[in-house]
Amino acid sequence: MSFPENFLWGGATAANQCEGAYREGGRGLANVDVCPAGKDRFPVCLGKLKMLEPDSEHYYPAMESIDMYHHFREDIAMFGEMGFKTYRLSIAWTRIFPNGDEEEPNEEGLKFYEDLFKECHKYGIEPLVTITHFDCPIYLIKKYGGWKNRKMIDFYKKLVTVLFTRYKGLVKYWLTFNEINMILHLPFMGAGLVFEEGENETLSKYLAAHHELIASAEATRIAHEIDPENKIGCMLAAGMTYPYTCSPEDVWKSMQKDRENYFFIDVQARGEYPAYAKKFFEREKIELDITEKDRNVLRENTVDFISFSYYSSRCTSADNTIEKTDGNVFATVKNPYLKASEWGWQIDPLGLRCTLNALYDRYQKPLFIVENGLGSSDEPDENGYVEDDYRIEYLREHIKAMKAAVEEDGVELLGYTSWGCIDLVSASTGEMKKRYGFIYVDKDDEGNGTLKRTPKKSFYWYKKVIASNGEIL
Ligand code: BG6
Q: Considering the entire predicted model, what is its pTM?
């Protein structure tokens, strides 16, 4: 038997990509609400185009999304039918603290998640909760400049204290920041950063990173204090970087590229800034004002487990002229040995085994795959049914690779939650067309559709995978 009996099979979503109801229940406005669909999305997410209020010229897909706010009982029942052992979701910070700096939390928001967690437990589903998934109150961005301001640590501490206290006994698996390394790639989403003309962007990103790393360690401390049963994880947008050739220059470049990402997890898992980062800061004249107290908090509060998303491996070359392709926002050199999805993300199941081994060797802590999946433009029949054999194929091959890592390499793995278990809004493009789900949702890129949910072929396939604990693939 390869997977332990208590292996956590399930699926993952994020509040801003599925909840909708952006102004209901006392919720405040968040950065993710004002990321439009269309050509302006990328500049906004990069912090290059300032959009802190919605306007009438753009369509904002997060505002309604798939309206899970009103459909969560129906959706969780479908997850229950698939046999999910866990469901990864995120909290919308603005449901709990609409502006972010209030004295008292918003009871309606707290109640919403309490109902949702109870609904999960009805089906024996263990919630796995991301505290912030690209999510920051707009008010904190306007007033404090987002995470480059140290004050954010206190607002976050307040948020997590409320969450850990209120949901004690209902939730025990928590992730502090989704894909924390995305600060470097999507700074508005990852840290609420909007850059001013002439600003030292690298400095602002690493300042924000430092504050999130401290906030994450503080959250770990508070979680363990409130309930020693709590298990706290960090979350990395993973996928190891291959050298394009065996030329030592390419190998060295791939090591440097990996370090840009490992940097965050090195701090969260080992409790201090790695030597290569200190030298990088010196070279770039990045002064982070790391206090003695910061050092202690980081050292004493490392994470319990390492979670990560995996869609693709990456590839790099010292030669800048080689053709590039997309891959979860990171532009990467096109690997000639791999096929790609419709969105150019290269497909590499063995890369998942490599990544699992690289992370386990480096950190020697339990791992959790909390995102993996294929974004594809599904074609439903007249009843909304999708025969998504391509998705089954993608997931099957990745699960086989993960099984090999567990069975043959001895990697300790807590669970697997495939991304977008129900169709939702794409984070990078804002499209509905880029679908990941086992469940089709009738909604298009312009916001039309009945929101009707229909199981796809992969729904029934995944149900068997879970029931057989990964034996029937
Ligand atoms: C990860 C994010 O980067 O990839 C998710 O954590 C995102 O929020 C997922 O949805 C897939 O990316 P996309 O751009 O296809 O939605």
A: 0.98
